[in-house]
Recover the amino acids of this structure.
């Protein structure tokens, strides 16, 4: 004999039994959105790692060097207030002075006008104040056209020759006139008159002759082979 199942009668609140709660059916979150957030997180972590690597790598490439803290005119002796140390990324081709040489630099003189903020380079400093004994320093004002196009720099050896107007290059006859050998100490200009002022160091017996020759008429400067 087959028995038929009879459904249980509905339970009522009055019977003291609480019916089971009916949970709402929540829509499933799309997987595409979750993958997008995961990918974004990976990119953020990777980007932070790359940034940290370059930051640390950049710091390791920085070296301590000397820097000028304030303007120092030509010939003035450097004090502890004129230079300090700093960290910079310096290319191998740039000549700088290591920070460990700070004590040695104090007491040296500026070979050129130093400007605050510039890195100290060996050629900018000197332990000798020119002119030395037996030398004289003569300023000579010349037109830029009477100087080498490549320019002059301190330490260059030159010949000073008379060069009247309209005669940029001395002729054979003019070359027979006395020439004075000199060493360039400083070059400045052009001034308000368009002239370059070249400070020349000459033998102590030729200073007056060079000054008189420059006052009499235009001169030109011939650059001798540069010293290596």
């Amino acid at each position: 004999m087959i028995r038929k199942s009879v459904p249980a009668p509905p339970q009522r609140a009055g019977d003291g039994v609480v019916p089971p709660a009916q949970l709402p059916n929540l829509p499933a979150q799309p997987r595409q959105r979750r993958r997008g957030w995961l990918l974004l997180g990976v990119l953020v972590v990777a980007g932070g790692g790359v940034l940290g690597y370059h930051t640390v790598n950049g710091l390791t490439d920085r070296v301590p060097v000397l820097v000028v803290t304030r303007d120092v005119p030509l010939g003035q002796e450097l004090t502890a207030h004129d230079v300090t140390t700093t960290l910079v990324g310096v290319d191998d081709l740039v000549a700088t002075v290591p920070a460990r040489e700070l004590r040695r630099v104090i007491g040296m003189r500026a070979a050129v006008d130093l400007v605050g903020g510039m890195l100290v380079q060996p050629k900018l400093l000197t332990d000798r104040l020119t002119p030395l004994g037996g030398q004289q320093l003569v300023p000579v004002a010349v037109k830029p056209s009477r100087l080498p196009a490549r320019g002059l720099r301190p330490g260059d050896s030159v010949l000073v020759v008379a060069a009247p107007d309209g005669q940029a290059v001395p002729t054979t006859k003019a070359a027979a006139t006395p020439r004075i050998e000199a060493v360039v100490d400083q070059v400045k200009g052009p001034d308000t008159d368009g002239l370059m002022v070249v400070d020349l160091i000459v033998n102590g017996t030729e200073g007056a002759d060079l000054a008189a020759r420059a006052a009499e008429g235009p001169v030109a400067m011939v650059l001798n082979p540069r010293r290596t």
Remarks:
- The longest helix spans residues 31-60.
- Helices lie at 31-60, 102-105, 172-175, 207-216.
- The longest strand covers residues 180-188.
